[in-house]
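Quick one, tokens below. Sequence please?
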């Protein structure tokens, strides 16, 4: 599965030789969702072996792909998208969990987060075809928008989980939130094995629990939104939380010499044009952090920060200001920073 939204979060935690067996660290790496994953798990009293854990992780991620990958023609979501039926379609529990959270964020943000944007995403060349088409005309955009609208074009039930198309042309793309769910799914695998200190990262987004092999909080860096370099803008300590960053500086298209962001405004069907370059969100889990980071980036600096303050979202904004960057933090984000310093 490939995903449209991610800005790299550099992991600073380095492996070390623990002083006792209880802090023994298992390190796993692999590929998934068109990117890579990295896991640091403190074994503690767990009896699981590295080989067993690797298989469990890979199986869990394969399951997420089989349910929600738009790049897998046989996945659950691809089959739903191809269907021309308006009848209720039963969906898997995992698919339902992600849809429920997506709908929550859609409503919270006034529609800025919308998983039915697939026709617009494809139109601008950011979808499964990954091509660079000519700049869409206003007519093409208008026609594509006719099947877009999470609150009007699809219906969703959570118990039992089911999905229904109102418009047979409507399709679903969970790229902006399913990666976070994959992270949480791996975390649940670790906990089922009795591992309670870990960091799970996929494509720059992550979730942590407990402490690292030194017995200290996990420390990560938020990348400076500059496509020409790999530099750190902000360092943050994260424990028992999910963290996700959405940025406009690594995934974009140049059409007729003009640069277009992959972040789409659901109302206009066009890439956003504001100066907000990157949004990092810390939330209770990676699924929520992933979706909120995308939504706040789509909303822009003023609307996004207003929502973060109103809803108590821990958000860190990096805004372009001519040839420099300005950072802004929500009250909830500053509170997390202050707590980590104590």
């Amino acid at each position: 599965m490939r995903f449209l939204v991610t800005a790299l979060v550099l992991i600073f935690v380095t492996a070390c030789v623990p002083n006792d067996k209880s802090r023994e660290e298992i390190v796993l790496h692999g590929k998934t969702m068109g990117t890579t994953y990295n896991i640091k798990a403190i074994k503690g009293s767990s009896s699981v072996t590295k080989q067993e854990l690797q298989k469990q992780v890979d199986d869990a991620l394969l399951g997420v792909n089989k349910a929600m990958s738009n790049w897998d023609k046989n996945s659950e979501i691809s089959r739903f998208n191809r269907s021309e039926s308006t009848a209720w379609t039963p969906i898997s529990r995992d698919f339902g969990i992600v849809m429920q959270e997506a709908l929550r964020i859609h409503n919270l943000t006034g529609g800025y987060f919308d998983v039915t944007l697939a026709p617009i995403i494809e139109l601008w060349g950011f979808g499964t075809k990954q091509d660079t088409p000519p700049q869409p005309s206003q007519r093409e955009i208008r026609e594509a928008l006719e099947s877009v609208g999470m609150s009007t074009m699809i219906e969703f039930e959570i118990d039992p989980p089911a999905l229904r198309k109102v418009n047979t042309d409507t399709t679903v793309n969970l790229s902006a939130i399913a990666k976070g769910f994959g992270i949480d799914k791996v975390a649940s695998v670790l906990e089922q094995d009795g591992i309670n200190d870990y960091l799970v990262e996929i494509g720059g987004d992550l979730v942590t629990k407990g402490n690292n092999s030194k017995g200290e909080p996990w420390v990560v860096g938020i990348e400076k939104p500059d496509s020409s370099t790999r530099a750190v803008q902000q360092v943050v300590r994260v424990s028992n939380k999910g963290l996700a960053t959405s940025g406009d500086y690594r995934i974009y298209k140049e059409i007729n010499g003009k640069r277009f962001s992959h972040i789409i405004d659901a109302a206009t069907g066009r890439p956003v044009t504001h100066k907000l370059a990157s949004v990092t969100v810390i939330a209770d889990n990676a699924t929520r952090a992933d979706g909120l980071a995308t939504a706040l980036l789509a909303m822009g600096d003023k609307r996004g920060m207003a929502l973060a303050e109103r809803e108590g979202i821990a958000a860190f904004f990096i805004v372009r200001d001519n040839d420099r960057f300005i950072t802004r933090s929500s009250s909830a984000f500053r509170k997390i920073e202050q707590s980590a310093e104590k």
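Confidence is low (pLDDT under 50) at residues 1-18. The CA atoms of residues 99 and 179 lie 13 Å apart.
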